[in-house]
Backbone:
């Protein structure tokens, strides 16, 4: 597709409404965020030559729209809302309404021209939903266990009931997740490969499969950036700021963090690497972040070459 002929369409997604702005003919329109409304929207967008739809990630509210657009062969790109907010500030557009947001999203697309990425299929979306739900339950479990430590006796019984329910629900999700992966020969092969690396268990391997499908397809810098563990410079003039990480996929980074903690204790490459950094005076978080980056790069190489861990070590 020639970049010069692309016509960008920005869509602001809310629970009940879809606000649309097309740079092709500078028109505004609104549709209900329902199957009927989305069908009407698709019929409008599909007539735009070389149309590219830009949609913000909204925690799942956009998924029905995105899948419908992709099914009809329309190029659709899901972007991080932070990028649009920064773009709006940089261009002096501080007012905020749903219609104005659609304008800004479309103009962001035309100015930045974000690169399209492969969208998750329905099966991957379902696996990702299981992983997200597990993380939510784990957060609730930790919160309830913390409350139990200081709870008055009349409340303890209720907390214990809820804690038992949460533990059972997590086990149910783990069982469903494992069955889901075993039901796909491709996923099963990926999981076996990833879990050959010390520190990568069923939770981490499933998260990598669902939330980082690009693993094995990008170079080391690109995959580290997607995982949110790539260091970025903070320099100005003669000053050299401390490098820091930001962006990437938060849910995946959280899972990778826990896997790396395990790897620093049992992985024959990550463990000595971590100890070397600590002995050199690096703060714990800095050393752990470096280990996260090293681990994801190794896993990326394993996936690219389709080699198990024992064949990937020096």
Residues:
């Amino acid at each position: 597709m020639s970049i010069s002929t692309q016509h960008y369409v920005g869509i602001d997604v809310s629970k009940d409404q879809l606000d649309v702005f097309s740079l092709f003919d500078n028109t505004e329109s609104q549709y209900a965020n329902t199957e009927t409304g989305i069908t009407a929207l698709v019929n409008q967008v599909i007539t735009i030559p070389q149309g590219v739809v830009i949609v913000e990630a909204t925690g799942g509210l956009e998924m029905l729209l995105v899948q419908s657009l992709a099914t009809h062969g329309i190029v659709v790109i899901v972007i991080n809302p932070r990028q649009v907010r920064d773009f709006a500030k940089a261009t002096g557009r501080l007012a905020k309404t749903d219609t104005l947001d659609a304008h800004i999203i479309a103009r962001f697309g035309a100015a930045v021209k974000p690169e399209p990425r492969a969208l998750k299929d329905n099966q991957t979306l379902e696996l990702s939903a299981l992983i997200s739900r597990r993380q939510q339950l784990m957060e609730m479990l930790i919160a309830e266990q913390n409350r139990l430590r200081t709870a008055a006796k009349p409340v303890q019984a209720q907390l214990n009931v809820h804690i038992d329910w949460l533990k059972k629900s997590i086990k149910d999700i783990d069982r469903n997740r494992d069955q889901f992966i075993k039901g796909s020969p491709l996923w099963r092969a990926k999981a076996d490969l990833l879990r050959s690396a010390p520190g990568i268990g069923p939770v981490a391997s499933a998260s990598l499969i669902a939330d980082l499908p690009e693993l094995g397809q990008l170079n080391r810098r690109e995959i580290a950036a997607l995982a949110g563990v790539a260091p970025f410079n903070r320099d100005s003039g003669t000053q050299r700021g401390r490098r820091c990480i930001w962006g990437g996929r938060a849910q995946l980074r959280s899972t990778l963090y826990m896997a790396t903690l395990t790897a620093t204790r049992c992985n024959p490459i990550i463990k000595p690497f971590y100890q070397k950094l600590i002995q050199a005076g690096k703060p714990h978080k800095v050393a752990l972040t470096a280990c996260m980056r090293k681990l994801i790069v190794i896993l990326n190489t394993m996936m690219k070459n389709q080699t198990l861990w024992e064949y990937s070590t020096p």
Notes: The two ends are 43 Å apart (CA to CA). Residues 153-182 form the longest helix (30 residues). Residues 232-239 have pLDDT under 50 and may be disordered.
